[in-house]
Amino acid sequence: MLAGLDLPVVLATRDAGVTLRDARADDLDALMALLSDDPISAARGDNGLDENRPAYARALARIEADPANTQLVVTDGARLVGTMQLTVIPGLARAGSDRLQVETVRVASDRRSSGIGAAMMRWVEEVAAPALGTTLIQLTSDAARIDAHRFYERLGYTPSHLGFKLRVPRG
Questions:
Q1: pLDDT over 70 for what percent of the chain?
Q2: Which residues pair with 87 in a beta bridge?
Q3: What are residue 72's DSSP bridge partners?
């Protein structure tokens, strides 16, 4: 869990306010459902099946045990409607600048275009990055996520780098 973030906080959206807070173990089923709600994630194995629950539980526990990481959730009342992972990466480049990596940004499919994602990313820029002392926010997005790319560009992010990945079999 990242120290220095004052949570929970209410984020203003077009419809109303939603709450941003740290993820908890009892959010796991809703997080799995949110990941499987996304066709690209589902195609990669995020299918929400109970057989994968132990792996997700271990991952969430590892994220929360790491002082450089946190998994956040957005709730509207009792319903989990969004999530994102934040990681502080110490850096030597850019005169020793620390980076804030934003990953696994998801908003429930029936709540997209309601301002939740924009409110999440605005909070990252205006609150989280300064509180954590980071000078650069970065994220990756699957090349197939054309709508997400337009969304991030509208928020001022630039597609400045080309990323590469190599899948390593679990063993």
A1: 100
A2: 69, 101
A3: 22, 84
Pairing mode of beta strands 99-107, 9-12:
unpaired
Query: Can you tell me the distance from the alpha carbon of 45 to that of 52, in angstroms, rounded to the nearest whole number?
Result: 9
Contacts 24+ apart (CB under 8 A), 100-104: 100/124, 100/128, 100/129, 100/132, 100/134, 100/136, 100/137, 100/138, 101/138, 101/139, 102/137, 102/138, 102/139, 103/139, 103/140, 104/35, 104/71
Closest CA to 112 of 36, 32, 13: 13
Instruction: Report CA Rg, the chain.
Output: 16
Segment 119-161, tens digit of pLDDT: 999 999 999 999 999 999 999 988 888 999 999 999 999 999 8
Q: Which residue, among 134, 71, 130, 153, has the nearest Cα to 104 in the 3D structure?
A: 71
Residue 87 · residue 71 · CB < 8 Å: no
Residues β-bridged to residue 79: 76
Long-range contacts formed by 153-160: CB under 8 A, 24+ apart: 155/118, 155/121, 155/122, 155/125
Q: Token match 């419809």: residue?
A: 15
